[in-house]
Amino acid sequence: MAADNASSVTEFILAGLTDEPELQMPLFFLFLGFYMVTVVGNLGLITLIGLNSHLHIPMYFFLFNLSFIDVSYSTTLTPKMLMGFVAKRNIISYAGCMTQFFFFCFFVFSESYILSAMAYDRYVAICKPLLYMVTVSSQVCLLLLLGVYGMGVLGAVAHTGNILFLTFRSDNLVNHYMCDILPLLELSCNSSYINVLIVFIVVTIGIGVPIVAIFISHGFIISSIFHISSTEGRSKAFSTCSSHIIAVSLFFGSGAFMYLKPPSILPLDQGKVSSLFYTIVVPMFNPLIYSLRNKDVKVALRKTVGRITFS
């Protein structure tokens, strides 16, 4: 019965980021620019890693996948968001909404776990450098990647399953620029504390477990850095980790702020602004953070540009 009622809602209307008419076009061009930087930056990093053999090591294997995840989930959300700035009513079908929500969850959970895999890689590289090639072998990297995308699928299935059998009011206005779980629960007729509890548990596993793993890894890393005798060695180790710490702080900070606070503390209108950070800003900044502060990537970029210029 619930499934029949849910399927009777054939479409949703996305409220968008703001209903102020004078802001629509400036915001359209602003976020179009962000999206173009995101796509060019992440595809550029993927291309650089693919073309330069000296980057075919575990650290850049994970960075390659981080860029793939970033450009994918930005593409899942941003084009529909841009449409909302120029269309009178930004309509999305029920099936389209569930599909967007599934892939959004898949890529966000995958990003959480790829960041924890990258933290583990840095932990082994700095704390156990002599065992690095054995501990982080190609087989281990593939197993870690399988775990990353496996957790992405599990998180997406859990969240989407939590929504699929809900019924929705005829006033089908989703108070967001995308199909996200909290505004969909707010729109539902029969959501209960069980649904909210499931959200909290799934988000805790998706954010909490990687955060704990990352904190433990960086705790060991910082301890090892202080035991490095040379100033140059300490500086290089800190430089290696600082980019990762910045990326992790941006992603998990904004995500936790959105999902791990009660709606009474963070209203959905403010939550939309918070969600901009991990859906728009983080995918755009990740390639800049990892390339501008990374000597190997700068060298690879110079070589690639040199080869193109010479040919």
Automatic annotation (TrEMBL):
Cellular component, GO annotation? plasma membrane
Which compartments is it annotated to reside in?
A: Cell membrane
Note the topology in the membrane: Multi-pass membrane protein
Question: Which PROSITE patterns is this protein grouped with?
Answer: G_PROTEIN_RECEP_F1_1, G_PROTEIN_RECEP_F1_2
Q: Which GO terms describe its molecular function?
A: G protein-coupled receptor activity; olfactory receptor activity
Q: Which UniProt keywords apply?
A: Cell membrane, G-protein coupled receptor, Membrane, Olfaction, Receptor, Sensory transduction, Transducer, Transmembrane, Transmembrane helix
Annotated ranges, domain G-protein coupled receptors family 1 profile: 41-290
User: Per the UniProt record, which residue ranges are transmembrane?
Assistant: 27-48, 60-79, 91-109, 130-158, 193-216, 237-260, 275-292
UniProt record similarity statement: Belongs to the G-protein coupled receptor 1 family.
Q: What does this protein do?
A: Putative odorant or sperm cell receptor.
What name does the UniProt record give this protein?
Olfactory receptor
Q: Which organism is it from?
A: Panthera leo (Lion)
What is the gene called? Answer: LOC122199956
